[in-house]
Amino acid sequence: MGLGGVALGSLFANTKALGNSFSQNFQPIQGPHFAPKAKRVIYLFQSGGPSQIELFDYKPKLREMHGQEIPDSVRGEQRLSGMVSNQATFPLVGSHYDFVQYGKNGAWVSELFPHTAKVVDDLCIIKSMHTEAINHEPAVIFFQTGSQQTGRPSIGSWLSYGLGSDNENLPAFVVLVSKGSGAQPLNASSWGNGFLPSYHQGVQFRSGKDPVLYLNNPEGIDVTDRRRALDYMKDLNKVQQELWGDPEIESKINQYEMAYRMQTSVPETVDLSNEPDYIFDMYGEDARKPGTYAANCLLARRLAEQDVRFIQLYHMGWDQHGNLPNGIKRMAQTSDQATAALITDLKQRGLLEDTLVVWGGEFGRTSFSQGRLTKENYGRDHHPRCFTMWMAGAGVKAGYVHGETDDFSYNVAKDGVHVHDFQATLLHLMGMDHERLTFKHQGRRYRLTDVHGEVVKAILA
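The chain above was modelled as a monomer; its predicted structure follows.
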């Protein structure tokens, strides 16, 4: 009951860790296990596998050996995807785009990312990421849930379960999917609750008249009628809860109540009309078009201001098996300015101090060409062995580059970071011990990182 207790109570107050009720989170919140560095996460997931060779991993050796066969000593016996397994030759191909060093530490950034280059001193770039999956869906699911198979809870669901919400009028976990950004399929299991109570699943916000499906009252139903109906349903559900003890009934009660509160809070949050012109100029003209990547980055900042715990933004279209020079340029043009603007905007509002921003895809691309190689055109296949991600904001070193790849960007050469290491580090920054954040299901205690993963202490500030 001393000063330490008062401080701890203040720290945990918003997460309802003290005096937590069963109806709010179904059981006492597990954490934070220690003082967090970050209060919230904005995860900019670049679905499709952005090529690290064209964006962040500068490899002049590939230009020197352009068109030559990849050495057997580099390729080894590593697995190839079915799209190149019958390919007779594997010619190396250097980046079509130039690189320049930026920032205090001289980080290499492609000419495709001129705006990101301006904020490079705020980024913690990890060049040595590696994963186990070689195809899109299992690779995306692996990053989001820690397993290549569907059915496990996503990162946002784990954080909702472990930390609760800081805003009772908005979900703890919100999902934004950019429209018009490519045809790469995206499985809703990526933001699913798995075996956790369904109250913790991600809620997708859409552009258009109905940001959340089935949230608005039907024609002829006013707010008083809705409130009365919910109260009657709540009474009936409580009778069923007492009879059966099914936690999903309690989850349904919570979802109904959250939906009722969201009828007011969501329209206010997604309405960008009150943003000043200089903000739209910062994010780019696309920010005025609902549902675009730029508009979703701006919306992510607004959600962060409302203390939404986990904001997941999906940007599809990075899967360039052919015509990569044109394809990746188009993707960079739709995302570079808005990504950098988000970092700048958070920073100028003091939000970057307690917000963790993550940028990256499910794997990288091969250093050899897929299909026909010409002077101006080529493609790259999936490559799980090494690729680049970055983090920025709360708790990570700014202006820091972690890890190295070999001269061909084909293998990790130093300080590899596995997907489970990344997940363990993200949870650590949120004040959660990844080995202690567990849920018992079918007789076994599960966790996001399964039985692997170590916190990457070298990137911590």
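The longest strand covers residues 40-47.
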